[in-house]
Write a structure and sequence with these properties.
Shape of chain B: globular
Largest sheet of chain B: 8 strands, antiparallel
Low-confidence stretches of chain A: 1-21, 71-217, 445-458, 642-673
Shape of chain A: elongated
Radius of gyration of chain A: 27 Å
Structural class of chain A: alpha+beta
Order of helices and strands of chain B: EEEEEEEEEEEEEEEEEEEE
Number of helices of chain A: 11
Oligomer: heterodimer
Amino acid sequence: LRTTKVDGGKTGMNSHDNELPNSETIAEVDRLMAALDRGDASPDEVDRLQFLVRTVDEARDRYVRGMMLKASLEWENIGSTLVQGVLKHDTNFRATPKDNATRSVLGNNLEEGAKSRLPIVPAPALGDNMLTPPDTIMIPPADGNSSPTSVLGFISQGFSWFSRPVSLIVLILAGLGAWGAISFVNRVPHEGGIQGGIAGNQSGNEGAEAGIVEKIPSSAVARVTGTWDAIWSSPEGSRKSGDLLPPGARLELTGGLAEVTFECGAVVILQSPSSFVIENAHGASLESGRLTARVPGPSAKFWVNTRSMKVLDLGTEFGLSADSSGAAQVRVFEGAVEVEPTSPAADSSNARRLITAGQIGRVEPAGGFSNQPPVAEPSSAYVRAMPNNFDEDYTRTILSSRPWGYWSFNSVITSTLVPDISGHGRFGQLYGNAMVVQGGNILAIGQAAAIGGEGDSVMVPTGSVLSLRDDFTMEVLFRTTGNGGVLMSKVPADGTWKPGSKILFVRGGEVRFTPCSSKPNPYRMMSAKVFVNDNQWHHAVLTNKADVSGNRDTTVLYIDGVERARRTDWDITADSDEKYPLRLGVGCLNYPTKNLRKDTHFPNRTHLTGHIDEVAVFDRCFDADEVEQHYRAYLTAGIARRNMLPFGDNGSKLQSPEEDEEEPDAEDITALE
Amino acid sequence: MSIIATKLNCVITAALAGIVCVFPGWLCAEIKGPYQADAHTLHLYHFDNSSTTESSKGLVQDDISASTAFTLKLLDGAKIVPSYPGFGEALDTSARKSSRASTLKPLSTATFHNKQSGAFTCEAIVRMDFDPNTFSKQYVDRMHIISLDSQTPGLTRSYHLSFRSLGVLGATAPSLEFVKFAGPEGGPITTLIAVLPQTKPHAPVQGAWFHVAITYNGEEGKDGNFKFYWTRMAPEVTRANLVQSATLERDSAVQQDSTLSIGNAARKKAGFFENWVGQIDEVRISGVARGPNDFLFSKPNVAQAQ
């Protein structure tokens, strides 16, 4: 009934039988990515990178991190130009605190962009007769070639969809993206991923309110690469993951942890309460507080000053604490550091000393090495690794299942390209009003629809690389805020309902799946009998086990980790969907017949009203255990709790008990005599 | 007169009153109840009729004298078991997925809210015989506590109050769910969620009794007109624990085709029964939004010395 599935990559080798040492592999990945970025990678090098990314976990991780970082850097260099050009913000949109954060960054540009945004040119593959409503968002399809290419290759494919002037702008701006900066900021932020996204840099709120998006200082020498429950001394001084730090930047941490990565490669974990100042690409001052520093090697020449000593790292990991009196103490975990008292009171007897692993050196405010035993402190007093980030844990779980494509929406490139972090480079493109919500890292769809914007929707089509004619799995997190709509689809671009079409949607409060099969009929449907149209996040997985020799595919629909529907009496993989784009949040933009919308086999609207996140497609069929594993990872990640809007479905405003204005009951106050 | 009390160690001795109450860390209080029907009580079920002749028929009487009283019938394995101390007996719907106590005739003459204002309070005491803090394949559905639902779809349905354990339908913490399907003027369907406390004393735990209540004051669209209460049944608790205020944009309406079902959804056509795995007792529906001091929990026993 179908052709044999073709493995797009090299076969016969996986991460377990690849004997390359990790360091060599990583170095090779770096070299290949750099070649790609320069544009002089040979086809063999592209193939080699593709092979490594597909088969070696460390290589894939390196590639994903690099790609996400590049996305962030490109965004920050581009600034708001493209955002204001492409995104339109509905002025009637009911703002929430989170939305206001987005609005404040985009500022007046949003309003202006609504009037003067750049034209959106639909992908050629989508056909001339496809409706392109002004409020749609698309992700550019690949060219149909089954061979994934490089990061820039995909970007350039995406650019082919832009009009020439826009392409030129994007290419120029992309060229300005400081890929070289990766060498010093080669870590993915711990919290919330790279926050750039469409909405840009959150720390630019002040400027944004005045219609000015914060300029990234070109002299940045370090970056905040992670925070954990961080509390800052003042709103003005607050930092978040991804923030670039110029010389003189001050970090006043009063709660939690913050990780800073320097251009020289040194990584500092700052513990609260601490007062820390960036000096240059190789050094900083710890005025008070505690930190742990890990330095890649002596060539980094990383140093930290306190009021009483200077610690020169010789390639090591050390902990450093400084109190308000000026006393400081260094503890070396690995390697060695050179400590030099810096107080004017220091004399020649207090020359530099070498402190090696396991040793502690202490300098008193008076300026000399202490003759007293060092202050007792366990090694555990220093945080040597940032706590796990739940989002990243979830991402790792998905990646461990080796998706064909994975769009986490944790970053956006050039404002409209959504990276595929599976490592296959299957970028998506945002269309119209769909946006990645800052801080939530989720795709917001149909926001305007909440106030009646029928055409407001989000679409994420991809190329026709994967034909869902064999085993496959589709996975998506979603939250509907209206009457549901389309989650994912693989439907002809012209909106016709042809054999091979597939659509996963919410109708009647239930998740439904309708494939179009020439055998036995094109209008069969399966429905998960559980109410999900409740403005809460849900996890949906559709798996299909193809019956290659017969016509009884097994299709299972899981909602929130539980099998809710199963059909085995159809052959949904009988027909090719090779030329149909994969879309998120929208199915047929126009219905093939007027009455189709009334058919419960189909969504009652073209688009989704709500949010989508962590979309992944796999070219194999999950079993129930793997679905449950993913769902448990979702529960643990707490994704459902993030970016919760304070408005419930249909405008039902939720309040926390603290907001309740109920007067305290006087009788509850117990008087004592 | 002088008032004698201490929060350090709740030992209140009032010799004249002859009261000695010892409970470390808390003011002394007591659980009031069972309820007596008052002017606002529309329906009241004690489930204390195992000794009556009705028990043989599996019937549970509505403890109001009005003509709008509705008798419940124990269905599909629902049974009467001992309740929280002092509360006689309770309903147990843990036997089967379809176990429930439901009305057997249409609610056309029933009243479930104040006819003038639309205000209402729905409450019960519940004991969970499942672990709400663990995602288990054994319990993957919401569990209904009080449901007013119908066999037909859409706006012929009324509302339900149910419970979601961790992981059930995406819940990342045990939660209460209120879904209003219909109002006097139709839709929209509204879902309100209240995440329950995750720390003592009110954190839901297996085997413990809790009082649960939802209240609506009838002021459509006014902030905070809807409230969720979830309170550990313990003598030291002095008032109901408010866990979430919300806003209901439109009044609810109980449709004539609806069925009142305790411990399950009375919606067989949906294909899924969603039973409460545990016990339910002291179900009271009122035509007023009761306050946190209007439930089972009393004020501190403040002894007055003379």
